[in-house]
Amino acid sequence: MAEKTKLKGAPGEGDATAATAGAGASEFARGEELPRAQSPARQFLKKFLRRKTAVAGFVFIVLMLVIAVIGPSVVPYDPNQYDYSALLSGPTAAHIWGTDEFGRDVFSRLVAGTQLSLGTALTASVIGTAAGVVFGLIAGFCGGLVDAFIMRVCDVMFAFPGILLAIAVVAIIGPGLTNVMIGVAVFTVPSFARIIRGAVLEVRSELYVEAARSVGCSSRRIMFVHILPGTMQALIVNFTMNVGGAILSASSLSFLGFGASVTQPEWGAMLSQSRNYLATAPHLVLFPGLLIFLTVLAFNLFGDGLRDTLDPKLN
Amino acid sequence: MLQNHEVSASEKGMSRRSFLGYGAIGAGLLGASLAGCGKKGSDATTPVESGSDTAAAEVDADGFVVKATKTDGKSADNDLVIAIEGTIQNLHPMNWSDGNSGNVCYYMYETMVAHDEDYNFVPMLAESWDVSDDALTYTFHLRSGVTFSDGTPFDSSVVVTNYNEAVKKENGWRRRRTFVQTLDDGSENYRVSKVEAPDANTVVFTLAAPYSPFMNSISQFYLINPTAAVDPNYNYLAQSAGTGAFTLKEWVNGDHTTVVPNPTYWGERPSVDSVTFREVPEAGARIAMLQTGEADFVYPTPSDQIATIKSAGDINLKAQKSTTMRYVTLNTNVKELSDVRVRQAMNYAFDQKAYAEVLYSGFADPATSVLPEKLHSYEAQTPYDVDLDKAKSLLKEAGYPDGFKLTLWGDNSTQETKGMTFVMQQMAQIGITVDVQPMEPATVADKTALPADETELQMWYVNWSQNDADGFLRSLLSSGMVPPTGYNTAFWKDDEFDANLEKGNAAPTQDEQDKYYRECQKIAWENCPWLFLATDDSLFSYKEYLKGVRMIPMGIDATHATLER
Fold first, then answer.
1. Chain A residue whose CA is closest to B36
2. For residue A284, what is the enclosing H or E element?
3. Is the pTM of this model over 0.90?
4. pLDDT 10s digits, B160-203
């Protein structure tokens, strides 16, 4: 029983290591008389802070999330306010990132668009991950025909480049940001299903799972209560890495006209509308392009850092 | 048959666009970072500002906006490449629906009578013609020694066969409506009562009643090899069947169409080895192709690329007043838009001058009638000068003080999308929320061709070009021309307008005709079936080594072009 309570706590923020750092670590956490043990959270933090690029990525992500939440209310201009007397002006004191082909403030639009772009990518990743986890758990735990079926379907989906699959989905269900989320989520599913299945296969033979089974726990209970927390590490790392890809995919779809309306300040849509001015007003593509680039990079660096910190093999 | 074909064309077009766009993202991102390295933003905008401020004043007497400074350039080959914005979907000379297709047909097919640059009628396959005093009998004397590209001789029987096929209802050729009028109750009125061929070189058309636009109908009556004309399965996209200076070499859906000189042509042989129309929806890409020499001629040229063209040095850019009317149809069957006060309010809210400036850097004139200024029957109407208070009070009167929501359709090219966004911004001033929905051109064409009870059309950002008043008033605004028959996509019906149009059609003299057409313009202008935008100039740019290309009502005429090598 003690085992179980520990594992339940595992998904908590810094506790991600608890499950795989092993049952041994948790025993120390309780023993007061023994030499002062470092809490897993503290251990994790110490290791993570050593990776400067990952920290930088993390800080940038937090910044972007803050901007996404409060940005629209603090921008200097209304993102849709046009000014026909200041078309395509370069960066000035009044418009620090210049204005676009309607004289709209690029900075304000990008800030306002953060919510759209980041929101779309995060939602798509959450949906895709959740579905992928369920399929991966089922495949790994049930094995046999079910496993073969789910994995072959995943193989088929893997055969298509992700963005192509997303385009196909959006082409069928129609354009719009919500549908882009679904499209991006769909191509996220197979990779998570595969990762989780692998992790499940590993955890499944652990002693504590066998113990749970022998005391008569139901399959569902074993799957979600005993096995899932054991895969948490792989999940967090891959989720973080995936968000970066999802931002790129969602922006690409909006660029192609499948996602955000051309009038919305979504990053990809802005890039798409600006591509005509590549030669004459490069700041129009530079800033949205840079923002997409940096955000994707931040998520990837952060994901890398997390993996390095969490993976016992690398320590 | 034809309908199905168009649908499949649109699907293929879609996949190509997606593929191209995908590659473009990478290029865009890469370009963004590269451009960012080389130039500081403030420097970069200077040429744009100077371009848009002074451009309009810089058109010289010959129509040059930018004149090439390097004049020693040579073409690498004798193949002329024209980069166009839209798509070529149908090369049936009597059934095409988009202007680009019509333009290409002009290279391969001929009419008895053609237009010159000043909109006068000039001989083509007919050497001369007579009109009887009662304006009922038109006699055409045909050129002898003309053959179709497969050797079939051209004579008067060919004209009779073509006419019979053109008016045959089951053929469903779009140009049928130049000879057959559809009345509001669905019945039909044939303009021509009989066509006879008294001898091999003479054709006589007898009209049922005087119809002054008849010569214009004849100038659009392309003559097809009779073996092809009577064959409902003839594939006009695989080969051509005309008497023109060129024959079709290949048509590749969504990519390009190439025509080569017709070896048996009766007239002067073209000097180029081939003419290729390449479909390049990206305005920036078209200019890039011109810079590298991949394309020799670009139309339309986006006005915001003037600075780029100027810096290239070996490119000419010319501006020419056009007959292109840009407007947004307002479907009068939509509840909110059925009220004329709402439609007027929208026009009072729309700033045409800003539109001309933002969209065309000033290379456009605000619309002052439903007809472009260049047409003979044009008369300026009282402009809807921007007056937001009046617009708002009209909306309030109509019962929409808080505005409402509408969808706006249009092609998904960069320029059209920009125009639609502009409309959205203008309408937002009076509380009308516009949902901008750019689509593949072929998709828009399909969706806007549905009849009143099936259509979801609310507003359509579109343009139209014709060389006579009837081609505007009848095709776009008469009640018999609502989809699927014609392009009255506002579904606007006005009996007085229709009556004046008919009187104008039957008028024996141009002056009398203009009197009725002016009345038509007045009625249409006051009723606002459209949001009136502007007439933009034709801006075309070409390599300095290319000579002899001109813009005509049919589009780009490169039949007499030469490339200096």
1. A286
2. helix A283-310
3. no
4. 999 999 999 899 898 888 898 877 677 888 999 999 999 999 99
A34, two tokens: 């023994």
Residues from chain B contacting residue A163 (CB–CB below 8 Å):
22
C-alpha B565/C-alpha B48 separation (Å) is 33
Asked if B21 has any chain A CB less than 8 Å from its own CB, the reply is: yes
Among the partner residues A167, A256, A283, nearest to B44 by beta-carbon distance: A283
Residues 6+ apart with CB under 8 A from B545: B73, B74, B75, B296, B314, B563, B564, B565
Token output for B205: 């058309």
Domains and CATH numbers, chain A: 43-73+110-314 (1.10.3720.10)
Phi, psi of B530 (to 5 degrees): -125, 165
pLDDT in tens, A260-288: 888 889 999 999 888 888 878 889 999 99
Please say whether the dihedral angle defined by the alpha carbons of residues B373, B377, B380 and B381, taken in this order, is positive or negative: negative
pLDDT of residue B450: 92
- Preferred mutation among A253, A261, A277, A296 to probe B, highest tally of B CBs within 10 A: A277
Are B282 and A275 inside 8 Å of each other by CB? yes
Query: What is the rounded distance in angstroms from the CA atom of residue B103 to the CA atom of residue B222?
Result: 12
Interface test with B, best of A102, A276, A292 (most B CBs within 10 A): A276
Q: Phi/psi at B209 (nearest 5 deg)?
A: -150, 155
Which two tokens mark B181? 């009028």
Find how far residue B209's CA is from the centre of its chain: 29
ipTM field:
0.76
Distance of CA A66 to the CA centre of its chain: 16
C-alpha span between B462 and B367 (Å, rounded):
14
Which residue's entry shows tokens 């989780």?
Answer: A196
> Could you give the angle at the alpha carbon of B70 between the alpha carbons of B67 and B74, nearest 5°?
110
CA distance A307 to B154: 79
Which chain A residue lies closest to B20 (C-alpha atoms)? A256
Distance of alpha carbon B504 from alpha carbon B513, whole angstroms: 4
- Give me the amino acid identity at B179: F
Distance CA A199, CA A232 (A): 9
The predicted-structure confidence for B395-441, as pLDDT tens digits, reads as follows: 999 999 999 999 999 988 888 999 999 999 999 999 999 999 998 88
pLDDT of amino acid A34 = 65
Q: Which two tokens stand for residue B538?
A: 């034709």
Distance CA B102, CA B312 (A): 31
Give chain B positions within 8 Å (CB) of A91: 41-42
Candidates A200, A197, A204; CA nearest to A155 is: A197
Q: Report the C-alpha gap between B38 and B44 in whole angstroms.
A: 10
Residues of A with Cβ-Cβ distance to B424 under 8 angstroms: 263
Backbone φ and ψ for A142, nearest 5 degrees, come out as: -75, -40
Length of chain B as a residue count: 565
State the nearest Cα–Cα gap between A273 and chain B, in angstroms. 7
